[in-house]
Amino acid sequence: MTQDERRVFLIDYLLHEEEEYRDMAVPADAASQKRLLRALMNVRPAAAASEEFLRVQDDYLQARLAALGVTDIDDLAPVQDGLYIWQGDITTLRCDAIVNAANSGMTGCYQPNHGCIDNAIHTYAGIQLRQACAALMACQNAPEPTGRAKITPAYNLPSRYVLHTVGPIIYGGLRDTDCQLLASCYRSCLALAATYHLESVAFCCISTGEFHFPNQRAAEIAIHTVRDFLKTPSTVKKIIFNVFKDEDKFIYEDLLS
User: The dihedral of CA 208, 213, 216, 217: what is its sign?
Assistant: First the structure.
């Protein structure tokens, strides 16, 4: 199959899973097809799919990744011992684990084509990630508490694992409790990474953006918490602060200069 043929196959499969979508036509242009495929993957509940679907999906996502190019942590230069700043798409970063800013449901963002990191990670990992998260949550049988972390395979992402953590949502002013919970997100992810004997972890800017944590204070907490953790013996030796916006890049560069 060509990449175009894979995309049409996946769209057609997902449209026919739900009766309300079965009469929907597949757009002719590639850009519209990509948006529709992502939207259908976003709204799809955690459920099994055929082996053929998974094979075609995996081939499609791997070909997309190859076209974009992968950034390997071994090709990055640290700004300080063990600390890196990297601006880019975390779904194209190869390291032991990337951190996902999840919600308390822990099964991804269901809003079609939403711009959050949770949506991107679940989209480009493939539908297996939502299934894995749903299985964890079924065992827990309760929403994920803020400040904790869970680990899953990364499936079609270049990293080995995804660490999922729920950061504090800021309503009104920033409280000391919010700062403590954000620090707990970083500690929980790092402790879990150490338990799995991982060496490198890439953190997104947890709780900023959609969760409204002030960017400057969030970066200060992230750096302080990571530095404290690295003082203790563990397998974790390399921490990447993954930034997407220029604002966050400038903040981290200033704090680590």
Answer: negative
